[in-house]
Amino acid sequence: MGFVVRHGRRIEVETLDTGAAPARRKRAPAKETFARIPHDRGMKLYGQVGGAPWIILLELDRLIFKSFGRNPVRLANQNLKAAGMSRTAKRKALRQLQDAEVITVVRQGREAVLVTHHWHPLKP
C-alpha cells in the first residue's frame, strides 16, 4: 500500500500487478542491402547513363550507409572488383556521373578517389 497527496488530502493507493509488459519484437535483420535513391532523380538519370554508373551509385550509397552517413567517401578499385568492374570502366563511369552532376570526384595522386555524392547531405 502506498499513498499520494492530491489537493492536500492523503489518498491510499494500491499497486496492481498486471503481469509483465509484452516484450517489444525486434525486426529480423535484412538478408540483403537496399539503396536509397530518390525516384525522380533516378528516373531522370536513367536516360543519361548506362549500367556501370548505376553500379557505382549503388556502391557509393552502400559506402555512405556503412560509414554512418559520411559523405564524401573513398572509392577504391577493390570495392568494384566483386561486380567485375575494371579500373577503366570505373574511370569512365565516374566521368559520366560527374558530367550528369550527380557526383564530384577529387583525385589525389595514386590514392583512391574521393567521391562526393550530391544526393546525400555532406557529412565529413
What does this molecule look like?
The chain is of the alpha+beta class. Helices cover 34% and strands 18% of the residues. It has helices at 39-46, 51-66, 77-81, 87-99; strands at residues 2-6, 9-13, 73-75, 103-106, 113-117.
Task: Provide a compact summary of the structure.
Helices cover 34% and strands 18% of the residues. It has four helices and five strands.
Write the layout of secondary structure elements.
Blueprint: E1 2-6, E2 9-13, H1 39-46, H2 51-66, E3 73-75, H3 77-81, H4 87-99, E4 103-106, E5 113-117
Helix pairs in contact: 2-4
Helix content: 25-40%
Number of helices: 4
Decide which structural class fits the backbone. alpha+beta
**Text of the CATH class of one domain:** Mainly Alpha
CATH architecture of one domain: Orthogonal Bundle
Overall body shape: elongated
CATH level-four homologous superfamily name of one domain: Winged helix-like DNA-binding domain superfamily/Winged helix DNA-binding domain
Order the strands across the largest sheet as they lie in space. 3-5-4
Strand content: 15-25%
**What kind of assembly state do the chains in view correspond to?**
single chain
How is the biggest beta sheet arranged?
3 strands, antiparallel
Order of helices and strands: EEHHEHHEE
Distance N to C terminus:
56 Å
> Per CATH, what is the topology of one domain?
Arc Repressor Mutant, subunit A
Mean pLDDT across every amino acid position: 87
Query: Ranges with pLDDT <50 over ≥5 residues?
Result: none
Radius of gyration: 26 Å
Number-wise, the strands total 5
